[in-house]
Amino acid sequence: MLVWIDAAACGRVPKIFGLTLVERHLQALKRSLPRPTRIVVDLGADGAKPRIDSSLDAAFAIEWRQAPGDFATRLTAFLAQAGNEPVLLLDGATLPDARLHAALVPLADSVAVLAPKNEERAALLRAEPGRLAGRQIAATDLTDLAEKLTADGTLRPYQQDEFNGFIRKLRRTIPYYLFRIETPEKAAKVEKFMFWSNYKGSTDFFTRYVYPPLVWVLVGPLARARVHPNTVTIFSIILALGAIPIWAIGETWSFWTGFAMAYGMSVLDSVDGKLARLTFTDSRIGNFLDHGLDMVHPPFWYVAWAYGIGGGTLDWDSPLGTAAILVVAFYVIDRLILKIYPRFFQRAFHTHSKLDGRMRTFIARRNITLPMFILGYVLGFALEAFYLITAWQILTALYHGSRTFWILAIDRAHKKNAKPTDVASALDHVD
To answer: Which run of H or E residues covers position 181?
Structure first.
């Protein structure tokens, strides 16, 4: 496949999270299979090559072309060289959903993707070999061309219902979007939209409602400075593991120091994921470190809390020691139970129904048990709070176990091709 990006206006288009729209196109194409054989970035007569990540030049052949003439003249020249290859036409002033590139590249069809909202004046075009050959281009931009070609039947409109909008990592369905970015004000609105679109459909109360203002303040500057999310993840690992011996000291100052480190880690745990997805810097090692930390550290936190409130010692035969063993054991059991559902549905347990999605808001997880323990500590009931956390973890494991049994053995939902239930708020605008 050959790709043409009209980047004549690239220098005047605001960046989104530190990346030009041309680089965002290239990053999305890098993640598409099969990858394009050649990409022509048409800078117009006076355009300059924007800064891009060095990995993009290594991913595929990119020709940076400075071609004179208007849109129609430059596109006609490109099509004359296309030969017998399908073409994908993109606009350097349009921000498309990055999933669209991956959806269009392997198609065996000629389609035009128009923005769901007409006022956006944004489009992508994919045409089979020879579909546009010899055609006189009489259009002012890509959107104008897409409207004319769909009106005369040359291309068919790409429909929202043929696009798989479910994002497994986010446990939610998001329809595709296209935005025209022409002003800093519009860029700011689109950044807010993309930020909220990258929150999981089912998550805990604090991640959804408490942390976002802090996460938002950090993500923008880090993205513009091109700080890699793995750097943020490593710092959060230091905070998460560093709090463990500090809590175990059992002094008032050590508990408050540990709480501050824990909340810093909790916020950064949201920052690294958003940063990775919004700047195309997600990686296997990053996912391993991030999700590995989420899985591993809570039991150590629980033991450190028990050790600290036990006065720097922990008798495993005491009620507190028994509670520590139980909370760790049922945490592990709970995590193992949640591995069963994805084997049948290829998605997370909490996407099964609205009930399961809403239960994710307050089940026994770090961001729920941490404020429970802090509140108990502040009120002088740290021991009682720890027992409550233990009971809550046991109930959480029982809920997940009984629901999994019901879904698979009684309801047999895996035999009915049950679709995911989206419990997140719908996002289809930038206001």
So the answer is: none
Count Cβ neighbours within 10 Å for each residue of 350-368 and write b for 16 or more, e otherwise: bbbbeebbebbbebbbbbb
Q: How far apart are CA 206 and CA 370, in angstroms?
A: 11
Decide: residue 11, CB within 10 A, 0-12 exposed, 13-18 middle, 19+ buried. middle
What is the chain's alpha carbon radius of gyration, rounded to the nearest angstrom?
26
Any idea which architecture 2-166 has in CATH? Alpha-Beta Complex (3.90)
Q: Identify the three-state secondary structure at position 171.
A: coil
- From the list 330, 222, 312, the residue with the least C-alpha distance to 273 is 222
For residue 34, whether the previous peptide bond is cis, meaning omega lies within 30 degrees of 0, is: yes
pLDDT range class, residue 418, cuts 50, 70, 90: confident
Tell me the pLDDT tens digit for each residue of 32-87.
988 998 999 999 988 889 889 989 988 999 999 998 999 999 999 999 888 889 99
Considering only CA atoms, which of 17, 16, 54, 24 is closest in space to residue 41? 24
Q: What is the DSSP letter of 108?
A: -
| Average pLDDT value over all residues in the chain | 93
Count the helices and strands in the chain (H runs, E runs): 16, 11
Cβ(294)–Cβ(269) below 8 Å: yes
Domain definitions of the chain by residue range:
2-166, 198-415
Q: How many Å apart are CA 304 and CA 369, to the nearest integer?
A: 14
CATH T-level fold of 198-415: Four Helix Bundle (Hemerythrin (Met), subunit A) (1.20.120)
User: Contact 43/10 with Cβ under 8 angstroms?
Assistant: yes
- In single-letter form, the type of residue at position 205 comes to F
Q: What is the pLDDT of residues 216-250, one digit of tens each?
A: 999 999 999 999 999 999 999 999 999 999 999 99
